[in-house]
Amino acid sequence: MRNDTSRRRFLQSAAAASLSSHLFDLPMRGLLRPVSAAEAAPTPGTVQLRPEIEPLVRLLEETAAERVLEKVAERIRAGLSYQDLLAALMLAGVRNIEPRPSVGFKFHAVLVVNSAHLASLASPDEHRWLPILWAVEEFKRSQLQDTREGDWTMGPLDEAQVPHGSRAVTAFHEAMNRWDPEAVDPAVAGLARSAGANELFEIFCRYGARDFRDIGHKAIFVSNSWRTLQTVGWQHAEPVLRSLAYALTHYTGGNPAESDHEVDQPWRRNLEVAGKIRADWQSGRIDDGATRELLAGMRSDDWRTTCDTTIAQLNAGVDPRSIWDAIHSSAIELSMNQPAGSGVVPLHAVTTANALRFAFLQSGREDTRRMLLLQAAAFMPMFREASRRGGEFGTRKLDEMQGETANVDVILQEISGDRDQACDHLHGYLANNGDPQPLIDAARLLVFFKGTNSHDYKYSSATFEDYALLSPGWRERYLAASVYKLRGAGDSDNGLAARVQAALA
Fold first, then answer.
1. Residue 134 confidence (pLDDT)
2. Residues 384 and 478 in one domain
3. Which domain holds residue 461?
4. Separation between Cα atoms, residue 266 and residue 66, nearest integer Å
5. What confidence category does residue 47 fall into, taking pLDDT thresholds of 50, 70 and 90?
6. Do 275 and 321 fall into the same domain?
7. Is residue 54 part of a domain?
8. Structurally, how many domains does the chain consist of?
9. CB under 8 Å to 501, separation ≥6 — which residues?
10. CA 168 – CA 225 distance, rounded (Å)
């Protein structure tokens, strides 16, 4: 993506500590000096990236955190495209940040790249660089943390161990089923060189959903990395897929291939029961009562019962969209019942549902779609139990939501002070045919100016995307409940706009 008009407008604007912007003039500087051969040379002991992107990745890796925005701004003025910066950011993350001890924590700098991109796509032209520049800073913070934890770097491959063609597919599945990261690494490189994007996605989305470890981050990494590669180009796929395969083989305790951990049980059982679903299950009737029944079950039933209910509803002619209505509603209800700042497990129920729904919609295999739907249904009770172990937990129910209307400005202020009232007022506003777009647009900008961590971007991008997928009646409740994890107009500014202005000045 390259938009010269957008770049000129951005260079002429800086966001103030509110939803509005004040224009100012910045002189354009000259073109950046050419990159020397020495700068472009690969660093010994690290995976070599494509030569056209290596210098930019090196700039992100080697520039001090306090100067990285200034250096990137110089490149933008010299003509750096949005797409190349996005690619370099993703590649710098997978080369420098280890998805251990969990596919989360510092690794959010990688997981958030697509969320920041989605926020950029939906933002006004003058703010389009802000989410990506924030993600650059997030990478530097995570890189520092990785350095403190051992300074992991993705190493080069032993090319003699890389299988090719059909042997790569076989070797990859065998290594993944053994949960063997050493054997997976050369196998996935061979797979990346032998298979197309759609085939790769079909393979990886199943492994991303096969266990509940890391509270959904594996499924999130699969969907977000595929989406990012669709934007930046599959010529960059190999290091990304190496990082992804390494993440998907993460476990603690006994090897899952030789154990029966609870987090692995839904996949194994669902493989057995998925065949009970009727042949024409992908079409049916939208059934509000079925959504309510399944949502109620997700509040108290175990994952086995929830999956059985899902199968029974599908066999009774319920459309999968009504099942997804319950899954998304259960996820956002968990989020609304845990106080802000007391834990992030419910938030990940939302982002995991988003990742699994995206994979479901993208997959062209009926057996994979069945498994993704059943796994999403199984994960919601597991998220419920994990959320309740995290401390204080409320009892508000999405389908019992009430409230009088208020205008968008009032609601945005209430998010910072009384989220219950903001939720009720937003539900009343939407139930009375209020236009949701002004609130969504403003809420995105508040993430830019008030957000402080990757969850702000991941959560907001997921909720605004999934809102459009829900059935009428459920989508209004869903968006109203999203305020519990959104930023409000009264939150403190994060200083991003000022830092970007200083870098561009």
1. 96
2. no
3. 398-485
4. 46
5. confident
6. yes
7. yes
8. 4
9. 14, 24
10. 21
Q: How far apart are CA 163 and CA 186, in angstroms?
A: 7
Residue 153 covered by a domain: no
- Cα torsion angle, 276, 282, 287, 290, sign: positive
pLDDT digits 0-9 by tens, 137-184: 999 999 999 999 999 999 999 999 999 999 999 999 999 999 999 999
Contact at 8 Å (CB) between 136 and 69? yes
Q: Are residues 306 and 222 in the same domain?
A: no
Same-domain status, 207 and 132 = no
Query: What is the amino acid identity at position 269?
Result: R
Structure tokens at 118: 């989605």
Single-letter code of the amino acid located at 231: T
CA dist 456 and 383 (Å) reads 19
Q: What is the DSSP letter of 236?
A: G
Single residue among 252, 272, 302 that ends a domain in this structure: 252
Q: What is the CATH number of the domain that holds 200?
A: 1.20.272
Residue 44 lies in a domain: yes
pLDDT in tens, 342-383: 678 999 999 999 999 999 999 999 999 999 999 999 999 999
pLDDT at 124: 87
CA pseudo-torsion sign 268, 318, 336, 449: positive
Q: What CA–CA distance (Å, rounded) separates 153 from 242?
A: 12
Write down which residue in 343, 366, 388 finishes a domain: 388
Integer Cα distance of 425 and 440 in angstroms: 15
**Partner residues linked to 203 by β-bridges:** none
pTM for this predicted structure: 0.91
Question: Do 230 and 271 reside in the same domain of the chain?
Answer: no
End-to-end alpha-carbon separation of the chain, Å? Answer: 24
- For residues 403 and 384, membership in a common domain is answered with no
Q: What letter does residue 28 receive in the DSSP assignment? A: P
Statement to judge: residues 197 and 222 lie in one domain: yes
- Residue 124, C-beta contacts closer than 8 angstroms, at least 6 positions apart: none
Residue 6 has pLDDT above 50, yes or no: no
Find the helix packing angle between 345-362 and 366-388, rounded to 10°: 180
Q: Which residue has the tokens 């139930």?
A: 431
User: What per-residue confidence (pLDDT) applies to 19?
Assistant: 41
Neighbours of 341 (CB within 10 A): 7
Q: What is the mean pLDDT of residues 318-330?
A: 98
List CB contacts of 372: < 8 A, sequence separation 6 or more.
Answer: 205, 209, 356, 359, 360, 363
For the record, the structure tokens of 33 come out as 């000096």
pLDDT digits (tens, 9 = 90+) for 390-401: 778 899 999 999
Q: Is residue 310 part of a domain?
A: yes
